[in-house]
Structure formats: C-alpha cells, structure tokens
Amino acid sequence: MPVSSPRARPTSRVGGSTVSIRVDDLGPLDAAPPLRPVRRIVDDVPDRLSGASKSQVVRKRYAAAIGPGQDNARVQKYVLSELATGERVISEKLPSVRSVAIGIWIGAGSRDETDAKAGASHFIEHMLFKGSRRYTAQEIAEIFDGLGGELNAATSREHTMVYARVADAHAQTALDVMTDMVFEPSFEDLDSEREVVLEEIAMYDDTPQELVHDLFSEAVFGSHALGRPVIGTAGVISSVTRRVLGSYHRQMYVGGNVVIAAAGNIEHNRLVRMLGRARSHQHPPKGKPRVRRPLVKAPPPGFRFARKETEQYHVCIGAPGISRSDRRRFAASLLDAILGGSASSRLFQEIREKRGMAYSVYSFASQYTDTGLIGIYLGTREENLGPCLEIAAEQAADIAAGNLKPAELLRAKENLKGRIMLSMESTSNRMSRLGKSLITDTELLSVDRIIAEIEAVDADEVAELAGLLLAPEKLSIAGIGSNERLFRSAVRRLNPSVLASAA
Predict the structure, then answer these.
(1) Residue 161 shares a structural domain with residue 210
(2) How far is residue 131 from each of residues 106, 185, 186, 260, 485, measured CA to CA in Å?
(3) Any residues with CB less than 8 A from the CB of 254 and at least 6 apart, and which?
(4) What is the CATH number of the domain that holds 363?
(5) In what order do the strands lie in the sheet with 160-167?
(6) Mean pLDDT along residues 478-483
(7) Residue 255: inside a domain
C-alpha cells in the first residue's frame, strides 16, 4: 500500500489506553506528527490581579517575541496564571474557531518511578478513566459522548497528559469531569483494568517493531529509569496494589507539578473562573513530588537482542542525543529530517526506494530534560540485514564528513517549517505546545523565532552533530529476530566493541 511517510507511529485510542512511548517524546519543535515544542516562556511582565478573586489566581501575561532586535514586531500572546492551589494555567485564545482543546499535564512519567513502581504512571493514567469521586466510568464515557467531544490520555517518560477537545459551549462540563478524574480518581475496578494493561503489554510484546524501541532505550540508558518501558512490566503490574498507586498519585498529582493548558475560543479569565468552579468540589492535593534522578553520565554503548520467530529482523541503532534546552536541537531536527525523517530522506531513498531492502526505515530524535535519544529503525529480512546496517552507517558517516548538498539542507528546512506552520492550524497542537513547554520547564518560542532558528543552522553544524552523536564506536544496538548469532555477525561489522560489553 502507498506510504506518505516512512515513520510508523503509534496512534491514540479513545478511553485512556494510549501509551505514547515515542509519540510524545519526539522532538524539540512543534511540528506535525514527528516534532514537538521548544523551551520556556519569556518577557515576564509584573504580576497583576485578574478578574478572578485574589485568592484564586495571580495573573501574568507573556509574549513570545519573533526574534532579537524586533521590538515592534508582531507577537504571539499567551496568558499564564497560577492558582492558589499551585496549578499553573496557560491559554491561547483563537476566536476564529468554535472549539477548545484542554490538557491537564502532570510531571509524572516512567523516569520518575522506582523499580518497584515501574509502570505506575501509565497504570494510573488508565485508572483515571475508571471513575472518580463524582463520576463513574460509565458516566464519564456518556458525558463526553453526549458532548460530541474527544477525551484521551497519554503517558511518556517525563509526563502524563489527559486531553479533551469539545465545542466551546461545553468547556465547563469538560473541565468539571477532567479535574475530578485527575485529582480524585476512585481507583475502582483495579483488577479488571490490571488485566487490560497486561493485555496491552502482551500486545507490545507481540509487535516487534514497537518492542525493539524499548530494547533500544535499555541498550542506551542501561539501568537508569529512562531505559525502562513506559508501559511497565508484567511482573510489576501483576502485583502493584491500590495503596501503592494511590500513594504515587498523591505524591505526583500536586499543584506545583500540574499544568492546565487550553487553546481555542475561550478567554483566559473565563477559563480560570471555570477551573475555580470545578476545583471547588475537590480537595486540594497535598504532597511533594519525588525529585527526578538526573542522568549524570550515560553508560557505555549497549547491546540487546530478543529472539522471536519473525520473518524480519527489527533493528534500532543509535546513541544518547541532546536535551530539549540544548541550542543544537534545531540542528538535531534537521539531521533527523535529512537522515531518515521523510520520504526524500537518505535512508528511505537508499534502502527502500533504490534497493527495496525494507518496507519501514526511519530515523528518530527525542529530547528529555537532561539528555536525549537519536537513532535509526529498520525492519528487513535476513539476507538484507548486513547491507542495510552498512548503508545506515555509511549515510551517517557521509553527513558527518560534510557531504551535505545545499538543496538537501534547504529541503529539510522547508520540510520542518511546513510541518510547524501546518501544526499551528490545530487547537490540539497549540494546546500541546503550551502544556508541554510549561510542564517540562522549557522556553516557549514563537513560530517565527523557531523558523529563524531553523534558517540559521548551516551544513557544518549538522555535520558536526552527526559526527558527535553517530560515530560508530558510540552506537548502541538492539534487535529482534530469529537468530542471534547471525545478528551479532551483522553488528560486528558496524561496532564490534558493543558486543564485548554484551558478552
């Protein structure tokens, strides 16, 4: 069947059953599917009171400027407030639409869990849909069906998000239900939902093109929490108790660790008043989130292999990337686009289009608070495994050697810019841009500023980054297939030292 993009990405499913293992950690820019936001909010103006009660909210107005030296240029404006209970609220009014996208973002992801609680963030995400103090699971489903709206959730390595999109007239109802779900879940039907999560884990275990990404994270980050699957493990999920989940929820779902973001046809003051009404029925959360363990130093390159009777070998190769606050993230996005991020990219053209050696091949780049992940995925039959790995290494080395054509770099820049502009036509993407930037404490740049940063990247920066991140001796490798000895033989030609650590 025809393919519009070489990247196969998991899609959301209604009912809170999504685990965004890669979708939500994809990159530093707010672009259409493959890429996401950047940095934090700038130009703080002194506090002033809003129309809401003084005890309810302190209001601030922020503007993300187009770029340096353009004081009179057009700006995109957002309004940021902090509620008395500690939650930050950020919004962008879009009067040309009749809907509003709302997201409640919690700074709780898989990297915040201990080994004994691995998968707790994702399990709690499921449980939010099983009922709250005021609403049963059935009522939650019926209310949103009656609104003609969308309700979903996702968990990543660094945050959890509950999301809704409704007609603007139904914003109050959506907030009433969402805040009750998030802050006062009942944790009922735990055992039945446990089985659902175990089935989800089994589904991923039976999907090698997904499972290999989890093996790859483990190969790169080792025993650090970033190396664990977001979804958790069957062993932990089978035994975790309501008490443990409740304790983790009380610890992490607290005011200072929560952001409420909205984009659409809604005034900020009105949003704050709605939240005040919704939260008046709820008990303010108390607690202090667990301090996130930083990745002080990445372990040596790792090797992981899982034997399964598959027709193809599913492979990820790559290394630690750069953090979301790193100035080089724009060059990293261009490197990703050129290497394997589009249908005209090098890997897609060389491996699939010219040689027919793979159906799915792409590169990926994720940014976290203190590190990142960059890599290549491909799925291919046994006879093509060695050649595919060699081509991937050759293309990375060619970019690192400075052999970028001007037209190639220009096309990648226009590709990223186009994705960003298209993404801004979606209230959901705008909301995600606001919420993710704030919950991850990263600067929120205007679209014009992001485009200017992309334009400023030159070929030397991309080449330098490719050499730094994708040198053969730095590559971790993960694979799934039927013959480990054959896989090791193919890998040995790429990075023999990585096999020594796995011996």
Answers:
(1) yes
(2) 18, 6, 6, 20, 49
(3) 86, 285, 286, 287, 288, 289
(4) 3.30.830.10
(5) 57-64, 76-83, 88-93, 258-264, 99-106, 160-167, 150-155
(6) 98
(7) yes
Closest CA to 305 of 209, 206, 212: 212
**Cβ(304)–Cβ(311) under 8 Å?**
no
CB contact at 8 A, 34 and 341? yes
- In this structure, are 212 and 316 located in the same domain? no
CA distance 84 to 106: 17
Q: Are residues 228 and 337 in the same domain?
A: no
Which residues span the domain enclosing 470? Answer: 303-434+445-502
Q: Whole-angstrom distance between the N-terminal and C-terminal Cα of the chain?
A: 41
Residue 34 shares a structural domain with residue 80:
yes
Does residue 56 fall inside a structural domain? yes
**Residues annotated as part of the active site:** 125
> Strand, helix or coil at 227?
helix
318 assigned to some structural domain? yes
Is the residue at 197 inside a domain?
A: yes
HSE-up of residue 220 (Cα within 13 Å, Cβ side): 28
How far, CA to CA in Å, does 63 sit from each of 80, 120, 228, 392, 442?
10, 37, 37, 42, 15
Query: For 141, how many CA atoms within 13 A lie in the half-sphere containing its CB?
Result: 9
Per-residue pLDDT tens for 149-204? 999 999 999 999 999 999 999 999 999 999 999 999 999 999 999 999 999 999 99
- The verdict on 254 and 155 lying in the same domain is yes
Domain total in the chain: 2
User: How much is the pTM?
Assistant: 0.86
Q: Which of 245, 279, 313 is the last residue of a domain?
A: 279
Q: Give residue-wise pLDDT tens across range 264-293.
A: 999 999 999 999 999 887 777 666 766 677
pLDDT per residue as tens digits for the range 352-372: 999 999 999 999 999 999 999
**Residue in the structure block whose two tokens are 């193809």:** 312
Distance CA 164, CA 108 (A): 19
**Tokens 């009912």 identify what position?**
15
Residues 319 and 406 in one domain: yes
